[in-house]
Every structure is written in structure tokens, then in C-alpha cells.
Description:
The complex is a heterodimer. Chain A contains 2 helices and 4 strands. By secondary structure, chain A is mainly beta. Chain A has helices spanning about 45-50, 75-80; strands at about 35, 55-60, 65, 90-95. Chain A has a domain at about 20-95: 2-Layer Sandwich (Alpha-Beta Plaits). Chain A is elongated and about 55 Å long. In chain A, strands 1-4 form a two-stranded antiparallel sheet. In chain A, strand 2 (about 55-60) and strand 3 (about 65) form a beta hairpin. Chain B is α/β, with parallel strands linked by helices. Chain B folds into 2 domains: about 5-245, 3-Layer(aba) Sandwich (Rossmann fold), CATH 3.40.50.970; about 255-390, Rossmann fold (3-Layer(aba) Sandwich). Chain B has 14 helices and 15 strands. Chain B has helices at about 10-20, 35-45, 60-70, 80-85, 90-95, 120-125, 140-155, 185-190, 220-230, 230-245, 270-285, 305-310, 330-340, 365-380; strands at about 5, 25, 50-55, 75-80, 105-110, 135, 165-170, 175-180, 255, 265, 290-295, 295-300, 315-320, 350-355, 385-390. In chain B, strand 2, helix 2 (about 35-45) and strand 3 (about 50-55) form a beta-alpha-beta unit. The interface of A and B includes residues 12 and 13 of A.
Amino acid sequence: MKKETWKELTIGTINLDAGNSVLNKTGTWRSGRKPEFLEEHCIQCFFCWLYCPHLAIRVEDGKVTGINYDYCTGCGLCAEECPTKEKAIVMVKEELKLAEGGKG
Amino acid sequence: MSVIKILNGNQTIAEAVRQIDPDVVAAYPITPSTAIVETIAQFQADGLIRGEFVCPESEHSAMSVCIGAAAAGGRVMTATCSQGLALMWEMLYIAAGLRLPIVAAIVNRALSAPINIHGDHSDTMGARDSGWIQIYSENCQEAYDNFIQAFRIAEHLDVRTPVLVGLDGFIISHSAEQIQVEDDEEVKKFVGEYQAVYPLLDTSRRITVGPIDFTDYYFEHKRSQIEGIENSPAVIEAVGREFGQKFGRSYGFFEEYRMADAEIAIVVMSSAAGTAKDAIDELRNEGVPIGLLKPRVFRPFPHDRIAQALHRLKAVAVLDRSSSPGAFGAPLFTEIRSALYDYETKPKIINYVYGLGGRDINVEHFKEAAAKLQRIAETGKVDQMLGYLNLRE
């Protein structure tokens, strides 16, 4: 994508395309581990959803249904905060792949 | 109706605020600028202004409120000084980077440590790279006039850059003078209606204010920001001229006093320039060919105009009311010396730091500097380029 020169930019760093951070796939930052959702242990407390810094917990029809790996950075907060005795989210190994890089 | 009132510096700023009636004033009181904030709060309580007055928990928050309110689309101002300005630091850069035309009255005061509440320019000089336009005032009248013009400069569509107006702590903020207070309606007309650019409250257009830039855009955005302040000289000049046509007091980038046939000159900003004029009158009576150059606009620095005004002289003393520890001279000096670099003919130039923490500068001190300038002019030799005035050695 062609990047604007400074003369073409909107004044004051204003971004006229509000909400375009969805284009920034933060999932490419993941390195070596990812959360796995185990629905059978989930009590729908929404702690994972609350703590996830990248809004990567999938919610459908008012229920947590899994992880959106496009945005999950693999930080592990969701697994850490999951309060059930048998965790509904566990971190598992993921094969390392070279990140393609998010949109700047 | 234009009337003469007896007001001190803080009251003149508050009076201008009452007349302009910005949408939002967000400020946290701090000596010696407290009375500005107090008086605005009183005006609001008395129903004399319609704008919102917000007193948050700190100056950092005050500037944050200003930024939010300006981004929302309001005309916004604040007032502070010294530690208060220091606490606003990171938000100053954000206001400038977001090109929000906030106006701030800064009652210049020393920075701690040691703690001191009196006037010097350490606070605003420290903010000189924050991207704000800086205008300094010699007396209460100039503070009033500069403050009114500041809105026009900041809000001009080619500029859209925050402006701070400096007035010396206590010497100006607490000294009552005769002030020509212009007619409310005429001031309102001069300042005009505020046109917000991309206001957040315009819900018909979704925008993001303050998004992150990575290595691929930050540089271009900063360059784009610089364009605003680089466009400002033409606007500062036009507004100063228009102010003169309307109210009879014109303003430029600096004032020249008895400079036409001067061979040596003193450069000093703000309240000390008033004392300097007395000293120059006395010296002129003694036959000394001396003049004064009083910079009014420090950012953008009018380097070409100042160099033009000074380059034919034999010797110049630049007086700074702040220090820049470890630098080759104090802020005003480094700017002026650099501005003269390209001239074939240029004066010998020396720097005095004076008046830190409100230390007096009297006619005798200007005469001390003048005597040194005369020696330099005669011999062509500078024995000490960087020095101090009225300091116990």
C-alpha cells in the first residue's frame, strides 16, 4: 500500500478511518504458545474476556466460545485468570512461524 | 466601551477570558497564577461567562482536560506557571502534536529546586521544544493584548498550534497598572467565532484522535506538525497589525527601542525590558549610542528579522532570565548567536543570565552590561562571553 507523504496527511494525526486497528492483526506477535479453550470446563464467568488486552476472546450469543487467533498475542492472561479448578483455558505449545507483521 | 481600568497581570488575563468566554477553561491554581484561575471561577459563579470551568486534581489533568475539550471541538484555555507547567509537560507535546489550538497564560516563575515562587523564564524556556508558540509580555497591557491575539494565531487554519503567553511572575502578575480594556463586543468580534477542525463531537463523521504511529508514519506526522508553527509568522504579523488598526496598539515579533542609530544593544524579554528602557534613556543622555531589542515572539524564533536588526552593531549583550546548564549560553543567546552566523558583518556578542528566582534587575545592572559593551566595541575583544548579572561572586 502506498504510504502518504507528510503533506498528504490529515492535520493533527487525525485518522478519518476510525476503527481501522482491526487491520492490525496482533496475532502475528504470538511466539511459541497459544491458549486453548476447553468448553466443557467453562463456567461463563467472562474473566478471560475481561482481562484479554486484545479483545481476542470470542463471544457468540452471549457466550464465550473460543479464541480469535487473529488478535491473540499469546500473553496467557486468560489462562492465568480462569478461576475454575480444571482450567477452561490452557496454554499449549505452538509451532513458531515467522510473523508477517501487522499493518503499521 | 473601551475603558481604562487598574488591573494587575492576573486580572488582565481573567478580564480577557471573560470577554472571549472560551467554551472550556481547565486549570489548577498555582502561585503566582492562582488569581487568574480564582477570578475565572468567580466569573463563572457570577454568571458572567457561559463556558465550562473545570478544576481537576493537577496541572497534568488540567492540560488533559484542555486536550479532550479541544479535540471535542471547543475553544479552550488554561493558566499555570512553574511546577504546574512542568507537570503538564507530556501533555504539552500532545496538544501540539494533535494541532489543538489551546491558549495558555503562563505566569513565568522559577523551577525548583530550591523552591521559589518568583519570576524567571525557566518554566517556559524548558517547554521551548514542545511545539507551542511562545509570546512574552513586558507589562499588563501587553499581557492582555497578547492573550487576545493568541486565540487568533492559534486558531488560524494555517497554524492550528497551541499558543502560550508569558507574563513575569509577581512583577507583572501582581503589579497593578492602568490597562486599556477594550469593549467586550469589539474583543469578541476581533477573536471571532471558533471553527473546530474534525471535532470529535461531530457524530456524523467517525474519526480517531491520537492513534499510534509506528516507524512508518511518526516522522511524517511530526513534519506535518512543524508546518503549523512554520506557517505562523505571517499570521502573527497580520494579527498584530490588525490588532493595531482596531485598538491602536500594533505588535510585531519584537520591539526596537532607540535602535536607529545604536552601535551597541541590549536584548532582553518581558518585564526587564521596561527597566532597560529607563537605563537606555539615561545612557543616551550620557551620550552612549545604545538601543534595546525586546523579543516578543520566541517560538517561532524570528531569526532572520532579529539578525537583520542586530548585524550592523558593534556589540550586543543578550540577557536571559533562565539558564541552560551545560549549553553554550542560555536559550535566547544561542538563538541569536546562531541567527547571526551567516552574516559577514556581525557584532561581538555576550550573554548574561540574570534575575533567576525573581532576583531584581535594576538600571545599574543594565549600565554594568552597557559599560562592558562599550569596552568590547572599543577594543573588539570579548574577555568573557557568558556571565551573570547581579550575582554575588
